[in-house]
Automatic annotation (TrEMBL):
It comes from the Bacteria. The keyword Oxidoreductase applies. Pfam families: adh_short. InterPro entries: NAD(P)-bd_dom_sf (IPR036291), Sc_DH/Rdtase_CS (IPR020904), SDR_fam (IPR002347). The keyword Oxidoreductase applies. Keywords: Oxidoreductase. Belongs to the short-chain dehydrogenases/reductases (SDR) family. Gene3D superfamilies: NAD(P)-binding Rossmann-like Domain. It comes from Rugosimonospora acidiphila. This is SDR family NAD(P)-dependent oxidoreductase. Coiled coil: none annotated.
Amino acid sequence: MSRIVTPFNARSTAAEVIAGVDLSGRRAVVTGGTSGIGLETARALAAAGAQVTIAVRDADAGERAAADIQATTGRDIRVAHVDLADRTTIDAFAAGWTGPLHILVNNAGIMALPERLTTAQGWELQFATNHLGHAALVLGLHDALAAAAGARVVTVSSSAHQRSPVVFDDINFDNRPYEAWSAYGQSKTATILFTVAMAKQWAADHITANALHPGGIMTNLQRHLDETQLRFVGALDEQGQRLDVPPGWKTPQQGAATSVLLAASPYVEGVAGRYFEDGNEAVVLREPGDGYSGVAPHALDANDAARLWDETLRLLRR
Ligand SMILES: NC(=O)c1ccc[n+]([C@@H]2O[C@H](COP(=O)([O-])OP(=O)(O)OC[C@H]3O[C@@H](n4cnc5c(N)ncnc54)[C@H](O)[C@@H]3O)[C@@H](O)[C@H]2O)c1
């Protein structure tokens, strides 16, 4: 399998990646479309003509985001209530969806919670939100995706997947000390493994699935980082103020570019089960890596992907 290379790079914006693409008549769902990368992803898809629904936890924030996108694109945006840590809202949204769904962007996420929090089911919150919630959503929307005959599922992972494989024997940190980055990393590895499995499981339905790292983008995501951590990643100026775009980081419009590429670009037509960054397929690393670029072998392992698919279905049946 040769590596997919496009004309785009780390500096490309969502608007540049989607220029010339007409999404009229296509329907798209973007989770977490209220801020950061999701907001810019929804905006770019809407600007290209798609009928976009943002699936959001906070309805007021959703309405504000929809008004913002409408003001810049002239397109109506639908807002749906979906809390990815609350199964009932996911199931209600999926059950209420009618007709084909052409694009699903699993974008919402939480990062590096300083303490171990769990859902009502006892699932560690980052695993529950970043992976299980999206898995329930994707599975609930399967028939709508299949009906689109060529649907694309795009999942926003992170280079932080390099920090941990899925620890199948103790996913919820019941028997090991909780560590924020291991928990986030595990959840993001799960999103890639699930993508690999989905691409295989649903190939006959003409549904493609790919995952990505968006780059470093200063958003609400970093709200759990303390000053030391923010300083370590270069996110503060000399006065200790957060920089909008620290050196080497991206703007939200650049951060949305790889999501939009995978959601709509002809450059990746038919491509499935792969992991991208900076608009191109990432290099597969020999070992987990430095946490910045490339994809770790533990995130593409076919056996772990099949195991996670089965384990996810089992957990969601509970
Ligand atoms: N910003 C970065 O540097 C960076 C780097 C790597 C990966 N990512 C990933 O990019 C994605 C988008 O993050 P962002 O940087 O735009 O952050 P953000 O905080 O601005 O956006 C995250 C979105 O997810 C939503 N969300 C969180 N929990 C939710 C829940 N339970 N149900 C529904 N929605 C929920 C939030 O409301 C928000 O709209 C995340 O998956 C994140 O892990 C971001």
